[in-house]
Amino acid sequence: MSSENNSPFMGFLLKHDQDAWWSVVHKLASSVHQVDRDATQIWFYFWPLWLRGMLQEAAGRKKLFEELEVKGDPDLARQIDSSHAFVYGHRYWPQVKVAVAEHAASQGAPESLDLTDQIRSVASQVAASTKVDESLLIGITAIGFMTLQQVGADAFKAAEGKLHISDWARKRSPQNILSHRAKNDGGGLFAYLKGLRKDYTITFNEGFKTAKFKLIEGVQLTQAAMTDQADHPYADSRCEPGDGPLPTECRSAACGTCWIGVLGGNDRLSAVNPLEQRRIARFAYIDTEEARPLIRLACKAHAKGNVTVVVPPWNAVAGNYLQGKDIAIGGHAASADEQPVVDPRRH
To answer: Per mean pLDDT, which range of 45-49, 186-190, 276-280 is the poorest?
Structure first.
């Protein structure tokens, strides 16, 4: 093991569990630019600490993956540079990565024992060197620290620090992106009065100009995606030919394949019904009583307007696994009287 993996800072960082990290994320939220406030939280839902722990179970990993029905690529170590491409701050990843790596390699005692303060300090340093608003760097810096904790200092430092967005996306400003997320199609009042069909736009990858499909008002996201037969070379590899650009299998909330993060237009989606709420928790994606959380199952979310989403690169049915490890969704220890997690296909 390198000296960087044994640095005082790495020892400090590794003491943070999922609860501690969510506390950090919530403390930082108000300081994160609006364009990345939800995106940052979505990234932390996509890459929880328990996922890395699962991958480190070398013995019986193949069998475990089969039991949890893992599909796609849940290994953050292979996606150090790309996992956060949907975050606006990704544009500054090369500079942030260098700063985080240097911070991790420091052999001196941390100036603060508050991880929130250390994230702010590194973001401030990058902001000063790049002349970029600090609020655009806090989210991606927090992501950098969490990535460092999960993959280790050696792997983190070895990553190339490349950008994974198109030239078109790099030129967009935060205001342009926020404006696009707020925009709504549908024909306006005239179409409403005439009783015309309302078509809306679903954007599934903000990194590419044509990564979108049309949806008729009230239709589920996966159903609308299936009608889109365009060739989307940047769609997730789990997408089957003819099924559109959103990964999907059962279309009945039984498999967890279609989970998404909602970047914009959340208020234009239907509220979570009891079935979706129950099963999205049992897949170990999110456990919340919010009517419209940031994480949804696309097969159960109906849209009444434009929506911008992001697709994670993996899916699983991991509720039983977490309960066996005494870990509930979000990293909280499971309570002694918590009900057993059942197979969502049988409930």
So the answer is: 186-190
> Is residue 337, in this structure, part of any structural domain at all?
no
pTM exceeding 0.85: yes
Q: Do 210 and 246 fall within a single domain?
A: yes
327 belongs to a structural domain: no
CA atoms 147, 283, 255, 199: torsion sign: negative
CA-wise closest residue to 283 among 299, 270, 265:
299
Task: Give which of 100, 82, 173, 174 is closest to 141, Cα–Cα.
Answer: 100
pLDDT higher than threshold 50 for residue 295: yes
Residue 46 covered by a domain: yes
Q: Could you tell me which residues come within 8 angstroms of residue 161 by beta carbon, excluding any fewer than 6 positions away? A: 81, 93, 94, 97, 98
The CATH number assigned to the domain holding 286 equals 3.10.20.30
pLDDT digits (tens, 9 = 90+) for 119-144: 999 999 999 999 999 999 999 999 99
User: Is residue 328 classed as helix, strand or coil in its secondary structure?
Assistant: coil
Residues 132 and 181 in one domain: no
d(CA 201, CA 234): 18
